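Researcher: Hi, I'm a grad student and pretty new to this. My advisor asked me to get structures for two proteins we've been looking at. I'm not sure of the right format, so I'll just paste the first sequence and hope you can take it from there.
Model: That works fine. Here's the first sequence with its structure tokens right after it:
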Amino acid sequence: MSLQTFRERANLFLYGHKEQLLGIIKYVNLIVTAVAVFTLVYYYGYQHNVEEKIMLLKIIKGSFAFYVVHYLIRFIYDWHPAQFLKSTWFEGTMMLVLTVEAIAYNLFDVLLLEQIFQSLGFTGITDLSAVFIQCYFLAIILIGFGKSTNAIPRFKINPALIFILTFLTIILIGTGLLMLPEMTNIEGSLNFIDALFSSTSAACVTGLMTLNTHVDFTFKGQMILLILMKLGGLNIIAFGSFLALAARFGIDVKQHSVIEDFVNKESSLSATGMFKKVIIWSLGIEVAGTLGMFIFWDQAIPFASASEKFFYSIFHAVSAFNNAGISIFDGGLYGEIVRNNYYVHWIINILVFLGALGMMAVFDLFDPQNLRNRMLNPWKRISFGTKIALYYSIGLIAAGAGLYLIFENNGTLSGLTTFGKVTTAVFQSVNTRSNGFNSVDYGMISLPTTFIFIMLMFIGASSSSTGGGIKTSTLALLFASALATIRGHKNTELFRRTISSSLLTRAVTVFLFFVVVNVVGVVVLSITEQQLLVGEQFTGTDLLFETVSAFGNVGLSTGLTPYLSEGGKIAIVLFMLIGRVGVLTVVFAVSGREEKKVYRYPEGHTMIG
């Protein structure tokens, strides 16, 4: 019997049971997922005796076994095995690793990955690898279940509302996890308000913290913050991929153009592999940053082991690239043991710059295919959006660093070497626009520098990035419009391109909304934080700085954050969320369907200025 004949007969035999068996497995998936999630939360969130740990580990191993069997069944029932293996190569590799580990553990009582890490000098990595594997397979199950349902086409969903709900879901899950006893060193557990604040800050990649991340959070809690930062950063581009999928199902996406934060209109509806590309590139950049930091950390930093040094490296690389600005050093990057670690500061500068530049601009500038295309065709240039993001980002960094050198030369920069002064000035300028890292005490900077930083935080990063603010694109269009008005031009032009009136209107709207919400934010904080103002510990400038930092998802503070009242913390949580999803996104989420008018009023005229 030939192989082809055998396959045909096997397929005919399997076909009669395929639909029934896969249907049963789909529901078993739900049960195993629920049990695995509960077990993971209970195992890592609470202390256990030896017997409980053994029982819980058996359940976790059982879920591993189910995932492997499930994968094999899907492979057997697929009519094109080679294509199946090719399309699920990463999942298949993980299954192979799990199988090999299971055999090695049951026969030789060793874990190969653990042995490999220990041979490289890494210890204590077992829990980290288990968390990663469980989270990965949970994601695989949820994605697979989502693909197997037909619920999506039944609803007409407002994409802006979905975008907000995804962040709320991530934030609330993170809040619940951070409240578990094993996540913090606080007696009992973290209270709801501080857990909500920390989760929102990490998921919205802001960086404002009411607690000391180094002291108050355990390794497990810091892991939760790391995952939240990564999910929050990816969610911006993930939603662009969702829009592409939604358009294919006929979901109403007419309002998607207002959500400028994550991706431009053309890219969100073109490449179906965009999200995969974003994941690969972001992980690649973060891995490069991790290796760079691992090599260049100052020898004086008292890392307990190579694994701790590695964890600090990957945490700060993810925090930097996703513009989160959360540090696990005591005192942040202003801590005495790290504030003069200038080589690491430059690595962070690069990561923050790339993250704030936006993934579309990064692809345009550094994708090998685009580079090769421009080399073979010298007349081809980078895109219009990339020019805005690149040139304005460089200009703002140069202006911010130059002004910082001028105003702080005899202040926070006094006593530093020339290289130290330049590095510190560039570091503050790069991080002030979108990231919360700081290597100086912001409570000690001069008033002119404070207002310069407020303006940089207000402008923020570029479109399709993880940064906040009005974005460099809005600034560029407003500046071009003002220049055209001054010169008496009828059309607004930028980089030899004519800007449409709809884009200008949108830029003005974003600017005005951002001004209004920041003014409202300062008023709200002036009400909730009256005691701090009366005590003269902080001023109205500190409230303005805190508000713009929260709305701009920057995460810098003059020291006000730990002293916020509960009302102030809730207000800052709302500011961070609105700043992350975008003011226009919130407006369109609550405004209902788009209204079209088929009539036009007579033109009105009034004096301006």
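Researcher: Oh nice, that was easy. Here's the second one.
Model: And its structure:
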Amino acid sequence: MVLLALAALGATGAPVPASFLLVGLGIGGSVLAVTRLPRLLLARQIAAAHPHPWPAPALRTGSPYWDVAVIGGGIGGLSAGALLADGGCRVFLAEQHDVPGGLCHDFERVGGRAEDGDKRLFRFDCGPHDVSGVWPGGPVDSLLRRLGLADQLQWCRVPHRYLTPVGSFDVPACWEEWLTMLAARFPASREGLIGLFADLRALFEGLYSTALGRGGFPGVPDDVDSFLAIGRAHPIVARWMDRPFHELLASHLRDPALIRLMSMLTTYLGDASVTPRCREMVPLFGFYLHGGFYPRGGTGGFARLLADSIRGRAGQVRLSTSVRRILVEKGRAVGIVLESGETIRAGSVVCNADPAALHQGLLPPGATRSGLQPVAPGPSAFALHLGLDCPPPHPTGFIDDGTTRTVVTGTSLLDPSAAPPGCGTATMWRILSPDEAADWFPEQGGPDWRQWRANPVYRARKAALAERMLDSAEQLMPELRRHIVYRAAASPVTFARYGLGNQGSVYGPAGRLSSPRAPISGLVVAGSATYGPGIEAVVIAAADAAQALMPGLLAPQSLRFGSPLEKSASGSMSVTPARVAQ
């Protein structure tokens, strides 16, 4: 998730964003904003945020080669490829798996009780189950409208249930009702909650304010005047964007239990040890302000739509196709070489693979790698997929025992096609830190991790953690175990196998790249490496990568479908009932 507008400037973790905002946004509207020195400093900071200003490659030349070669068919690669294909480019996309989507694919499994001789077909989502940015004018909605696909997905609102040491909470669909509920449960914190929600809404509006000028995709302005305009219109962004989120909470709240409750959505960013900044957390409050949604037919349907969009625009999506390396000539990316040895020549390359792969063989020897940090892996996860002989208890439940958090999803309640009549699906998720994830792989010099999956020690460990997670899940659904007719667990090793993320990373690298542009001309990076995890964030990153190759691609006039952001009378983004199934 996160992550969104202006976030890339703080992505490196360096003090650049803080000074950027203090000099730029913080002085918006002040006397200093019209003096020469601050504008000069701001211009330098803008240049520092884009360290590789190579000229956009010449695309759409009509040559016999492809205009763009895309490595990886995750949502980042598919979105960038679809946007570029919609802009007139001939796109070739290579995906190592036999289905598109990366960690946003779904899969079917047959379960049942052997003694009954029954067989039941269940569908599970590999990863995403709760999509933000679907509201009218949001990034995901804007992508689908631009591609003419908005009417081909039916979205279901995903409710949240929180089970915590201080009680159970069913989050209302309306953010005002959520605020009222919290104020009733924590009356001593009522005024603080009102102030906190007011700040969160103002920050959210500021972070998304650039979307109107970029076809619905928020991003970082690339000129001084635009930054100053944001500072004048949204001064709160200058104050909080790059500060830790817990400081914003502490400025309004004192109750530790309430602060932990308001931090529940950090689970969508990483393990319990993460300390996100406001620029990462505020976009997640879109789940409260506008809702998160699930596509009927499974999240893999979203990926398949994007793949078909590329194919329908004279592009090619080749599955079960691994890439050996990027072809670099005279400092320019000019195509890719497949594992089969086939060379795909192209005018530019989009890399949707883990950035670590660029250091581990995708780039040929001698190619510059400076500026491609970080490559350290981010968090991974352990997931337990269950087919049940009854409906699951809730579409999305967060179980917080005060130490660990487990997310339990039951998407068959939103989409009955995921399970046979009278049955259901449930998936339990626990995020693992990079150190915890690394411990699931064999020691360096040991067996190949792909063979490690058959090791009895590894299998016993998977089974033991699955049992502990079932213990936790039975808080939400008592006697869960007796309803299970299919069961499969996924460890960091599993996620590494299907997603090729470094150490099974499911949220991208530990840090963020400041720009989609790589140091090699014509090479851009898409995916969670720039804006962070989650479908919405990855769609924004893909739009940035596509625009880096085709300046002006995101111009508002090219948004041929739909309208700009629509607001209801209460100020919240409205959802068109015809498009969203409740």
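Researcher: Is there anything I should tell my advisor about the second?
Model: You could mention this: The first strand starts at residue 66 and ends at 71.
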